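GpE family phage tail protein
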Amino acid sequence: MADIAAIFHWPLSELEALEFEELIYWRSKAVDRWNRMHCGKD
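Structure:
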């Protein structure tokens, strides 16, 4: 949940409303975004 909140700035109330499968989906999206923003830079 912290990954999602940190990247997308969603409040805890929004995250608590998600089903487990949705959390997994959005965490994957958050990791992808983090990697695009921070990987590959020297």
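The two ends are 29 Å apart (CA to CA).
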